[in-house]
Design goal:
Layout: E1 5-11, E2 17-24, E3 31-33, H1 35-40, E4 47-52, E5 58-70, E6 73-81, E7 89-90, H2 92-97, E8 100-103, E9 108-111
Parallel strand pairs: 2-7, 3-6
Antiparallel strand pairs: 1-2, 1-5, 4-5, 5-6, 8-9
Length: about 120
């Protein structure tokens, strides 16, 4: 299995920005910002949630929202506020908000094919 990374810029309510090198994780629901990043851009916790990791471990993390800019577009997205040791992840909710999917064969982000019912 290959690894896909993408650089993006996140910003908080005060307009402060930070560049983050995300691991694109098609198994993660939410995008995760490392502790130093969300502190730097001034995010505050809005709620908490329990998450199940790939090994079955359950962890509780705070959630907030930020603005994210990727080469493919920009959007407002929910984010997990990481703790010490947590690595930056770009999750499926953010990808869907941006209309993107991870192609499992090429390991590249591409536009989502939308259908009208």
């Amino acid at each position: 299995m290959g690894i896909t990374r993408i650089s993006g810029t996140v910003s908080g309510p005060t307009g402060k920005k930070a560049v983050v090198n995300f691991l694109v994780d098609s198994g993660a629901s939410y995008t995760l910002l490392p502790f130093k990043v969300w502190q730097e851009i001034g995010l505050k916790p809005k709620r908490s949630h329990a998450f199940t990791l790939a090994d079955g471990t359950i962890v509780n993390r705070q959630i907030s929202e930020c603005h994210i800019e990727l080469p493919q577009g920009e959007a407002h997205t929910p984010v997990i506020l990481g703790e010490s040791g947590d690595q930056p992840l770009l999750g499926v909710v953010t990808l869907e908000i941006l209309g993107l999917v991870l192609n499992p064969f090429t390991r590249e982000l591409q536009e989502m094919k939308l259908m009208l019912a």
